[in-house]
């Protein structure tokens, strides 16, 4: 493996990539600027080739292989975006490859990997998490001699991904105050950090992880990379159970802080990006801008804050779940178990005396038990405003019905999402 990555390596990678990748736009977000009281800029890597920054690292590494290494082919593990970057690079460079993906990888990403590979790339589904797929890809490399192309934990990958940093500085209308970067295995934030710390050391760098896959946060607390016991794969582009051995010390030494964001907040930001800015972002692509909202108050009024919109490979079939998670996060949708007596008028009482104007039933799943006096129902209620919950709970307490709230995070709630 090449030596540690530095600013010069990032600049050399930028020269390799300049005629290949897109110089993605840096756009002003009036919405987010108004929320945080500073100027927020969005680096649109969702408009990159393959709709993700990952192609920067994959192409940089593969293009630097020897003829003998290219003849052996390449292999990688991916949650989807790195695999697309490798597939596009293979097609461009005429190299055969295999991409291992976990079973939770969205269908849209799987189909794009095969399409971008143009017949040179094979797709293999292995396990339910990125780390299982990664182990299978490593085993493939050892068995066949194919060159393993890491998605983050290699100086060549890191340098390629870090080429976003000089673009940011060149495109920004003034000196950057803060750069907010999504974190999975740490390749992107490490690449940006090594270049910024050498060339623009005053820039604040904030990494952002999903709270259900906070492997860098765990590594920083433990003093080194550790494997998470559980990984929530909803933010699939950043659902990494163990960060890299190469990326960890870079993040530890050069990144100012790493924060976490709830999946519901990510979903809310995805919808706002789409409905206000017309930006299609996948969950990992909305991590940085979701975090900026929660960092409001930490920026001077004249600050320039750049967020990396890291990817836009979102499967449209996921939007139902995204809307649901967003509503729950905002406190607008709530679920209850209601025990209705099996007698006339029970439901009428609930509708008339428990619910108020602006409170709508969006789910009603009732199971009648012939030999029992009561029948349970799962009831989902949507509110006009989150503040209305207190009044609803008061009316439920006053009702003769037995009503139990299903709180987010409970085992039962997982059946709803």
From TrEMBL:
Subunit structure: Homotetramer.
Biological classification of the source: Bacteria, Bacillati, Actinomycetota, Actinomycetes, Propionibacteriales
Family: Belongs to the serine/threonine dehydratase family.
Function: Catalyzes the anaerobic formation of alpha-ketobutyrate and ammonia from threonine in a two-step reaction. The first step involved a dehydration of threonine and a production of enamine intermediates (aminocrotonate), which tautomerizes to its imine form (iminobutyrate). Both intermediates are unstable and short-lived. The second step is the nonenzymatic hydrolysis of the enamine/imine intermediates to form 2-ketobutyrate and free ammonia. In the low water environment of the cell, the second step is accelerated by RidA.
Pathway(s) the chain acts in: Amino-acid biosynthesis; L-isoleucine biosynthesis; 2-oxobutanoate from L-threonine: step 1/1
Gene: ilvA
Catalytic activity, reaction form: L-threonine = 2-oxobutanoate + NH4(+)
Protein name: L-threonine dehydratase
Xref: PROSITE patterns: ACT_LIKE
Species name: Nocardioides mangrovi
The protein's required cofactors: pyridoxal 5'-phosphate
Keyword Amino-acid biosynthesis assigned: yes
Residue span, ACT-like domain: 334-408
SUPFAM superfamilies: ACT-like, Tryptophan synthase beta subunit-like PLP-dependent enzymes
GO molecular function, one term: threonine deaminase activity
Keyword Lipoprotein set for record: no
């Amino acid at each position: 493996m090449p030596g540690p990555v530095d600013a010069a390596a990032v600049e050399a990678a930028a020269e390799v990539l300049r005629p290949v990748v897109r110089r993605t736009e840096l756009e002003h977000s009036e919405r987010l600027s108004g929320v945080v009281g500073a100027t927020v800029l969005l680096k649109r890597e969702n408009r990159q080739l393959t709709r993700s920054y990952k192609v920067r690292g994959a192409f940089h590494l593969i293009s630097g292989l020897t003829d003998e290494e290219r003849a052996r082919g390449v292999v990688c593990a991916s949650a989807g975006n790195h695999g697309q970057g490798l597939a596009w690079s293979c097609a461009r460079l005429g190299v055969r490859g295999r991409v291992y993906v976990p079973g939770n990888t969205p269908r849209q990403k799987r189909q794009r990997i095969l399409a971008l590979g143009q017949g040179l790339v094979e797709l293999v589904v292995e396990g339910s998490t990125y780390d299982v797929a990664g182990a299978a890809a490593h085993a493939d490399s050892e068995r066949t001699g194919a060159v393993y192309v890491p998605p983050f934990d290699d100086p060549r990958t890191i340098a390629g991904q870090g080429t976003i940093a000089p673009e940011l500085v060149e495109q920004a209308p003034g000196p950057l105050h803060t750069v907010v970067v999504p974190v999975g295995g740490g390749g992107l934030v490490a690449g940006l950090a090594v270049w910024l710390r050498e060339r623009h050391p005053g820039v604040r760098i904030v990494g952002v992880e999903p709270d259900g896959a906070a492997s860098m946060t765990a590594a920083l607390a433990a003093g080194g990379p550790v494997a998470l016991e559980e990984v929530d794969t909803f933010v699939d582009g950043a659902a990494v159970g163990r960060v890299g051995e190469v990326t960890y010390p870079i993040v530890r030494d050069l990144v100012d802080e790493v924060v976490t964001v709830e999946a519901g907040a990510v979903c809310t930001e995805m919808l706002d990006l789409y409905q206000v800015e017309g930006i299609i972002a996948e969950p990992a692509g909305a991590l940085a801008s979701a975090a900026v909202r929660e960092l409001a108050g930490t920026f001077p009024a004249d600050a320039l804050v750049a967020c990396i919109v890291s990817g836009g490979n979102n499967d449209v079939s996921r939007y139902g779940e995204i809307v649901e998670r967003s509503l729950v996060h905002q406190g607008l949708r709530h679920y209850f178990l209601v025990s209705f007596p099996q007698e006339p008028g029970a439901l009428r009482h609930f509708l008339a005396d428990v619910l108020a104007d602006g409170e709508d039933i969006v789910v009603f799943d009732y199971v009648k038990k012939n030999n029992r006096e009561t029948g349970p129902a799962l009831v989902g209620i949507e509110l006009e405003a989150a503040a209305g919950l207190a009044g609803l709970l008061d009316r439920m307490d006053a009702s003769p019905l037995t009503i139990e709230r299903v709180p987010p995070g409970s085992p039962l709630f997982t059946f709803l999402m």
